[in-house]
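haha ok so turns out i had the wrong file open the whole time. this is the CORRECT one, sorry everyone. sequence first:
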Amino acid sequence: MAALGWLTHRRRSATARSVLAGEAAAEAARKSSIDTAVQDVEGQRDDAAELEFPVAGDQLAAAFFDLDNTVMQGAALFHFGRGLYKRRFFRKRELARFAWQQAWFRLAGVEDPAHMEDARNSALSIVKGHRVSELMEMGEEIYDEYMAERIWPGTRALAQAHLDAGQKVWLVTAAPVETATIISRRLGLTGALGTVAESLNGIYTGKLVGEPLHGPAKAEAVRALATAEGLDLSRCAAYSDSANDIPMLSIVGHPYAINPDTRLRKHAREHGWRLRDYRTGRKAAKVGIPAAAGVGALAGGAAAAVALQRRRR
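then structure:
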């Protein structure tokens, strides 16, 4: 998949691979939303009523939502891995390994480049040669089993407020775009920006387009999509739980910290950003552990890839 070349000259901290990943995610998101009609969804509206925006009919505005711990409790791909394990697609030892990778990363709260590279290469090597349709088919079933009940009602209400105002709403996540697209469609959203694994004729090649959609790459994806869609970012909103998404939150006019980790909460207060926390008590402490989505998503992706390998055998 070639880069789109939508980006204008600007100062940025992103690498060339981040730009490529962002552009690829934007292209995949636009393609996936072409035939997707926005559906009616149920959800609480209490928090939506507090918004001073979105402005109804503002076609230059849109909303961008991080997925893990923002829209959904926990990591989407961890839940996906649980569904795969239930189907006996891999063994307890492998499940424990991927659970440990995610737990380590959450507790550390920092990115180890070598650890991230190892997880990425492992996932890509195993998924190579398998069909994209396989992941999509399993994802539909697993969403109903493990994910549907973990959507935060408050965040869903915020997304619905934007839809009701006639605006497009996109998920932006380090999870594979196929998984993100399933969740987006089930929630009645416009589409999803996610990590793009290269495929030819519907079969994974074992390579990524750019890098995982994480940190600066998310901001690049949002910029690319905004340019392609003719959006004014100063009129757009973005929502996330993680300080790793500060680059994305910083480029829109309406940034929101949702269920924020410690660093994002501090940053949001210092910059006057709005906060929403839908956690309470003990659950807040558990979910609020600082986490960077990159390795967590890759670990989940590796679990999914291992499952496919077991199934194929």
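The mean pLDDT is 75.
again sry for the mixup
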